[in-house]
């Protein structure tokens, strides 16, 4: 081997050794993100359904056959509008009979107060005249007996005639009193009239029950009966949604109850109309939690104007803004190494080495968190697999939005979703 060849070989070996040493000493690369202030929004997404403020099911209080159903699903009805009719021939006959009984009782009372009262007064007058005649006859008999023209036996007959006339007068007076305004006969006739009137009212009420009417302005949701069917009390015949504010009803996992407050705004979207997003607000939160489902009922009031395409029980997607920071130091959740009780540990890159830093967190979402203390804007944090603290590292800085989108995609099946920088 020549001297030139030997030198070339030694140079190549040195270069190879240097390359190996450089490769061994070269710092490993790790994905990182640089902290920057940004808006932070936490939202809660869940399904809801359209529900009328008041929904009623109409039925009948009688057993009968349906003669006519005058409305169909979707129709608007006015207060008192006739919706359904049951057969009522028998009840109409019962009402006519009760009305006839009422007329008969009224006629008897009127008779007592008119012709009956006149006849009684005439009877009193006649009885009093008979009594006066008997008393006069008694006086004349007493005078004749005193003069010796009549025997004393005639006096007994005259006295007996007076007694009979007095009894007849008292009887006539009693009869006249009975048919007076405060008399027993009139009171009895008045009671019979009241009983007949009550029977008429009862018959009229039962007849009215054969007609089902709208209790208020409403929309017909469901028609549950057809003409010819026999219905019984307690069975629903028609379902109505009474006019009033449109509400959205949702069952929300109780774990997120702390995040919800009355008055929070929400964006609502119907799957059937994806291009017509509208807004609503939390109207009320139920005071009780459904123990079986572990959910709480939340009601939303739809902001005006209410979309015309909304239908009762339509399923909607609701996204509620539960917290917002207009400007916060945003930390991606992917950068957290451990977290407990509002504090967390992250790995920060400083002077090419990894160091562990404890930070205090504020508002948290699924993919980001607000940093309250421990870090500053511009700090570089490792977000993926990286060497432990104290090791050399080469930070491969990625845009913050890319890291948060990746974390959100990993949690796509979660109920709680979030947005940063909206």
From TrEMBL:
<feature type="domain" description="CusB-like beta-barrel">
    <location>
        <begin position="250"/>
        <end position="322"/>
    </location>
</feature>
<dbReference type="Pfam" id="PF25954">
    <property type="entry name" value="Beta-barrel_RND_2"/>
</dbReference>
<dbReference type="Pfam" id="PF25967">
    <property type="entry name" value="RND-MFP_C"/>
</dbReference>
<feature type="coiled-coil region">
    <location>
        <begin position="84"/>
        <end position="206"/>
    </location>
</feature>
<dbReference type="InterPro" id="IPR058627">
    <property type="entry name" value="MdtA-like_C"/>
</dbReference>
<feature type="domain" description="Multidrug resistance protein MdtA-like C-terminal permuted SH3">
    <location>
        <begin position="328"/>
        <end position="384"/>
    </location>
</feature>
<keyword id="KW-0175">Coiled coil</keyword>
<comment type="similarity">
    <text>Belongs to the membrane fusion protein (MFP) (TC 8.A.1) family.</text>
</comment>
<dbReference type="InterPro" id="IPR058792">
    <property type="entry name" value="Beta-barrel_RND_2"/>
</dbReference>
<protein>
    <recommendedName>
        <fullName>HlyD family secretion protein</fullName>
    </recommendedName>
</protein>
<dbReference type="InterPro" id="IPR006143">
    <property type="entry name" value="RND_pump_MFP"/>
</dbReference>
């Amino acid at each position: 081997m020549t001297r030139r060849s030997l030198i070339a070989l030694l140079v190549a070996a040195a270069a190879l050794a240097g390359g190996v040493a450089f490769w061994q000493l070269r710092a490993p690369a790790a994905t990182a993100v640089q902290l920057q202030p940004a808006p932070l929004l936490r939202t809660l997404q869940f399904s809801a359904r359209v529900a009328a403020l008041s929904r009623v099911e109409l039925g009948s209080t009688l057993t009968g056959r349906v003669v006519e159903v005058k409305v169909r699903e979707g129709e608007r009805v006015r207060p008192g509008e006739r919706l359904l009719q049951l057969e009522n021939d028998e009840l109409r006959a019962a009402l006519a009979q009760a009305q006839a009984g009422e007329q008969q009782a009224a006629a008897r009372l009127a008779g007592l107060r008119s012709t009956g009262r006149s006849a009684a007064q005439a009877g009193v007058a006649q009885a009093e005249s008979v009594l006066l005649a008997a008393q006069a006859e008694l006086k004349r008999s007493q005078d004749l007996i005193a003069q010796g023209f009549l025997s004393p036996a005639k006096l007994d007959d005259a006295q007996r005639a007076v007694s009979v006339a007095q009894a007849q007068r008292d009887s006539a007076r009693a009869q006249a009193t009975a048919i007076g305004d405060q008399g027993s006969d009139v009171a009895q006739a008045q009671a019979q009239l009241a009983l007949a009137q009550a029977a008429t009212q009862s018959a009229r009420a039962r007849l009215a029950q054969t007609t089902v009417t709208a209790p208020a302005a409403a929309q017909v949701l469901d028609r549950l009966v057809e003409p010819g069917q026999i219905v019984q009390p307690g069975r629903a015949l028609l379902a109505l949604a009474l006019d009033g504010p449109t509400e959205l009803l949702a069952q929300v996992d109780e774990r997120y109850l702390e995040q919800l407050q009355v008055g929070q705004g929400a964006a609502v979207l119907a799957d059937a109309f994806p291009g017509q997003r509208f807004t609503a607000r939390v109207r009320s939160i139920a005071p009780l939690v459904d123990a079986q489902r572990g959910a709480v009922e939340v009601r939303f009031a739809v902001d005006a104007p209410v979309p015309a395409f909304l239908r009762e029980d339509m399923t909607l997607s609701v996204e509620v803004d539960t917290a917002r920071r207009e400007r916060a130091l945003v930390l991606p959740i992917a950068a957290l190494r451990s977290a407990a009780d509002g504090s967390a540990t992250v790995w920060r890159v400083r002077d090419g080495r990894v160091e562990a830093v404890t930070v205090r967190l504020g508002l948290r979402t699924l993919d980001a968190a607000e940093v309250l203390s421990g870090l500053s804007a511009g700090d570089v944090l490792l977000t993926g697999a990286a060497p432990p603290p104290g090791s050399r590292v080469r930070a491969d800085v990625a845009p913050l939005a890319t890291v948060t989108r990746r974390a959100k995609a990993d949690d796509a099946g979660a109920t709680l979703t979030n947005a940063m920088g909206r």
